[in-house]
Design brief:
The chain is of the alpha+beta class. 26% of the residues lie in helices and 30% in strands. It binds zinc ion.
């Protein structure tokens, strides 16, 4: 069958808006609301929030004897204020897994409890080569990194007067930039795939089509800390397609121009039968896909398996370069991933 067309401009605009909505794990309300508003505008879906704060979208299918689920996560890497230093600068506690050098020199915003945003930069504490010489090569760890605030503060008291306290969220600048079909930004993991799911819903709606089976889309909000989709997917779902970025680098088959089927990651192999079906669906649509293994990676599909979920799980997603760093992918991979999702939704 021929798939409904994917509106790449819609996908790009939706993705830009989501990337510019900060959502470190633990502070995802605004991003979830953004997705909810977009889905409401498309229409024809049922939505509810889980008690944990995720968004569950239900698409009525032609049949409902074997409901399916898909998931992508809206939460991203980020940080929290751990303590205010005597200098007035901030020590951070990371949200999600990344080395400090990946965000060194990056702009950030500290959100106070009152909702005020204070601008700053994440720096190594011995940042000036003219002062510290060789010491600038020192180890990047929690104790040696700090936030320099763009506010006149010289003491812990000055900083407290700005309204900043331990536990405040720190948003790392996404720096979204589109060039020649490429998009580079922080947090393409996994906002790119949320865009894949929502643009698939739009394609179905534009074409007046229903999925083959009643389908749940869980926009999860705790993936980066390992338990996002552990809860929230209705128990009658017989399988889960996790949609998350593919890992690009030396020795990987994945690249920024294609979608990948991940058959194994740190959590072991995915469901063979479901993976085989996804291959056949891609081939029937002429989608040039990759098959890969991700060496240091876990997904929300495995989070549900570990929580006791009894269902088949498979994983697909667009190739993302420099994951958890300043990431990049290409529109070709985004469109192909959306088409693959559509093929899955529309077929037996
Ligand atoms: Zn991810």
């Amino acid at each position: 069958m021929s798939l409904p067309s994917v509106d790449a401009t819609y996908l790009q605009d939706f993705l830009s808006g989501l990337l510019n909505t900060p959502s470190p794990t633990g502070y995802t309300e605004e991003a979830i609301a953004y997705v909810e508003a977009a889905a409401a505008k498309i229409g024809g879906v049922k939505m509810e929030r889980t008690r944990k704060g995720a968004l569950l979208i239900t698409l009525e299918g032609e049949r409902s004897d074997a409901p399916r689920a898909l998931t992508a996560h809206a939460d991203t890497l980020g940080a929290m204020v751990k303590e205010i230093k005597g200098s007035g600068r901030l020590r951070l506690s990371k949200l999600g897994g990344y080395p400090w050098n990946f965000v060194e020199g990056e702009g950030c915003r500290v959100r106070t409890e009152q909702g005020e945003m204070i601008r700053g930069t994440i720096l190594f504490s011995k940042a000036s080569v003219h002062v510290y010489g060789q010491q600038v090569d020192g180890k990047r760890e929690d104790d040696s990194m700090e936030v320099r605030l763009d506010a006149p503060t010289r003491s812990a008291d000055d900083t407290r007067k700005l309204g900043i306290q331990p536990g405040d969220f720190v948003f790392i600048d996404p720096r979204v930039e589109w060039t020649n079909g490429f998009v580079r930004s922080r947090h393409l993991d996994d906002k790119a795939c949320v865009a894949n799911l929502i643009s698939a819903v739009k394609s179905l709606r534009d074409a007046g089509l229903k999925p083959r089976q009643t389908t749940y889309l869980l926009i999860s909000n705790y993936e980066e800390v390992g338990h996002g989709a552990a809860a929230g997917i209705p128990a009658d779902a017989v399988e889960l397609l996790a949609v998350d970025m593919a890992a690009v680098g030396d020795g990987q088959t994945s690249d920024e121009f294609h979608a990948t089927l991940c058959v194994k990651d740190s959590g072991g192999p995915y469901h063979h039968g479901m993976s085989q079906r996804l291959r056949r669906l891609a081939e029937a649509e002429g989608l040039e896909y990759r098959v890969d293994i991700y060496p240091f990676y876990g997904s929300d599909g495995e989070a549900l398996w570990r929580a006791g979920g009894d269902l088949a799980v498979a994983l697909i997603g667009p190739g993302v370069d420099a994951s958890h760093n300043y990431e990049r992918t290409h529109t070709d991979a985004l469109v192909d991933t959306t088409r693959w999702v559509l093929a899955y939704l529309l077929n037996d």
